[in-house]
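Reading group handout, session on sequence-to-structure problems. Before we discuss, look at one worked example. The prompt was deliberately terse, the way you'd type it at a terminal:

> structure DUF4129 domain-containing protein

The input record follows.
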Amino acid sequence: MTPGTVPAQSAPLLPDPDDARDLVRRELEDPVYDAAEPTLLDRAARAVGDFFAQLLNPDLSGAWGPAAAVVATVVVVAVLGAALLIWGRPRSSARSRRPAELFGADERRSAAMLRADAAAAAARGNWDGAIALRFRALARGLAERAIVDPSPGTTAQAFARAAARTFPPSAPDLARAATTFDDVRYLRRPGTRELYEEIARLDDVLVHTRPATAEVGG
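And the output record:
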């Protein structure tokens, strides 16, 4: 072979069309291309973003610019309204959390439920149960109002002292109510109609009294 000549059987520098299609097909079959493709969620999010971007595009001609902004606002308000209807307004943390333990007992009832059960016990003449239930209703009611929140382990006396700082005029009544609760609950002293009605009246007064301050944790 003389210098400067090219062998007759050398491979072509460019593939023919069929070979090129095969090369492209084999290359695109590489899994790395599948991983790089956007997911269905990515495409949906991009579509929503493009939709709002077009609505708020300042280059829209004529009256379409302000109209698009109004449409976008209406859509956002409608979505928020639907969310409120479905899930409701978020409750404050003090109202939403309800400790299971209340004065040494596993208690998950609301204040309204405790009051109703206390009244039912009183109607049966079960004054011990009625007194304990109504005192727990008083405490649960203040917790639901985020005024005094007795944490697990709080005693009736500690709760009464915390509530007295929040309702100074009712301090003596709160102290007597806590003592009555302890007498019935722990000392096994018999309850009476008068003791139950005293706690019930105190609970009713506090329901309609504005607190001076708020205590959390009892």
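Points for discussion. First: Residues 4-12, 90-96 have pLDDT under 50 and may be disordered. Second: The CA atoms of residues 183 and 189 lie 5 Å apart.
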